[in-house]
Design brief:
Elements (H helix, E strand, L loop, with lengths): L3 E6 L7 H11 L3 E6 L3 H4 L2 H8 L16 H7 L3 E7 L1 H8 L6 H7 L6 E5 L3 H5 L1 H13 L2 E2 L3 E4 L5 E5 L3 H12 L8 E6 L4 E2 L5 E2 L6 H12 L3 E6 L11 E5 L3 H12 L4 E4 L6 E3 L18 E3 L3 H7 L6 E8 L4 H10 L4 E6 L11 E7 L4 E8 H15 L1
Parallel strand pairs: 1-2, 1-3, 3-4, 4-5, 8-11, 8-13, 11-12, 13-16, 16-17
Antiparallel strand pairs: 6-7, 9-10, 14-15, 17-18, 18-19
Helix pairs in contact: 1-9, 4-6, 5-8, 10-14
The protein binds flavin mononucleotide.
């Protein structure tokens, strides 16, 4: 069933961002309602929200709503409320449970863990000791308070208090809405390609984007798990308090980062496309165009998945990705089993389908019990499927 979100907008200069936030929430297929404070209506009009929502927004008590406990009914018919932007005044009123307008009365009718607050204010307001005390208090009560950004403020000054961009607010909301893993763990996720330099300018690599690995790291972090993301070159950025990112270039560096952390982790997910070979010798200067042909001598890189499987304690879980052009899922699984892998993620690269860089994928999840095919799933959905598998193995 669609999740129902109540978006609250207060009187900040950042209120214009909430129109775009509403659009992004609609794209994610949430069921939405909007409440504005009367000061918010001076910054953005109810009409703008209504045009996007195609229904009335709420401003005052009993405004276009059947009489009774309208704020209580409205609150209880939503999964969460998101106040974005939240002014200093609204935050202070929440901290002392003062229902001085319809938005606050609705927010106070919800248990704190169902309310997300996205502050927006001048840095002087934000850094004020009374404000910081209120924020600490609200977090202790169970409210989800997003950290504002340091950036250019409405006054032109640079400081802390800026409302984060709607894309980041959405990430925060999805995090809040994601059910948490019962017994949380630490996972290592490798992502992206590696580069094996031939000379100072050229390298051997592949076109892995790292998208899947990043989305797996994100999903696990949203579920409350710590993640060590070992990222090859070009892996997209990801910001989350539970994700520690280690950037590496070569297969050897990736191996060293994994080796360092494996004994303190419970899960390994090898989604990186690691080079199997590296030049025997890296030339100190750029190779000149002299001969008609050039022979490069290559040697094997460390097999990270094999090492992890060989050094696995009983309770640790290893997930191996197998991108194949010729092997069937059965053959790929046999190969993975030899490396002591608990769960295999098989995908095939063919002339019709190339998973590199695309946002969708066709995969077969390989376990001792069964092989299960997932066709044309988004990489975000694949990350959820994979996280479910890991939770079921724990
Ligand atoms: C141009 C302008 C911009 C404002 N921006 C902010 C802001 O970003 N954050 C804030 O806390 N207050 C801001 N205020 C002050 C609030 O609008 C004021 O405290 C208002 O009473 C908030 O009411 P509300 O929280 O019920 O919406 C601004 C005021 C003006 C005139």
């Amino acid at each position: 069933m669609k999740k129902r979100i109540l978006l609250g907008v207060t009187g900040s200069i950042a209120a214009y961002k909430s129109l775009y936030l509403l659009r992004l929430l609609q794209d994610r297929d949430f069921d939405l309602n909007v409440i504005l404070t009367s000061s918010a209506t001076k910054f953005v009009t109810p009409l703008s929200f209504e045009a996007l929502l195609r229904k009335k927004v709420f401003v005052e008590f009993l405004d276009e709503y059947p009489a009774g406990n309208d704020h209580v009914d409205l609150a209880s018919s939503h999964d969460i409320m998101v106040i974005a932007p939240a002014t200093a005044k609204t935050i202070s009123s929440l901290a002392i449970a003062r229902p001085e307008n319809f938005l606050l009365a609705t927010a106070l009718a919800l248990p704190p863990h169902k309310v997300t607050i996205v502050p927006a204010m001048e840095d002087g307001f934000w850094n004020h000791p009374a404000m910081q005390e209120n924020i600490t208090k609200l977090r202790e009560y169970g409210y989800h308070v997003m950290e504002p950004e340091v950036g250019r403020l409405a006054s032109g000054k640079v400081g802390a208090g800026r409302m984060p961009d709607p894309e980041e607010v959405i990430e925060f909301i999805i995090d809040v809405l994601t059910p948490k893993t019962k017994h949380s763990f630490t996972a290592i996720v490798t992502a992206g390609p590696t580069r094996e330099f031939i000379d100072p300018v050229r390298f051997i690599s592949n076109s892995a984007s790292g998208k899947t690995g990043v989305l797996v790291a994100r999903e696990l972090a949203f579920r409350g798990n710590k993640v060590i993301l070992v990222a090859g070159p070009g892996v997209p950025p990801i910001k989350h308090r539970l994700i520690k990112r280690i950037d590496v270039i070569s297969a050897q560096e990736m191996f060293e980062a994994v080796r360092e952390s494996w004994h303190n982790s419970e899960v390994f997910i090898g989604s990186a496309a690691v080079s199997d070979y590296t030049p025997v010798e890296k030339k100190k200067s750029k190779i000149k165009k002299v001969d008609d042909s050039l022979i490069l001598e290559l040697k094997r890189t460390p097999d990270i998945l094999k090492w992890v499987g060989e050094n696995k304690r009983k309770e640790q879980i290893v997930v191996g990705f197998a991108l194949e052009t010729d092997l069937s899922p059965e053959e790929a699984y046999k190969k993975l089993l030899r490396k002591n892998v608990d769960l295999g993620v098989y995908n095939q690269l063919s002339e019709e389908f190339n998973p590199f860089g695309s946002s969708n994928n066709n995969v077969v999840m390989l376990t001792r019990k069964e092989f299960k095919t997932y066709k044309n799933v988004s990489k975000e959905e694949l990350a959820r499927i994979l996280a479910d598998y890991i939770e079921s193995l724990k």
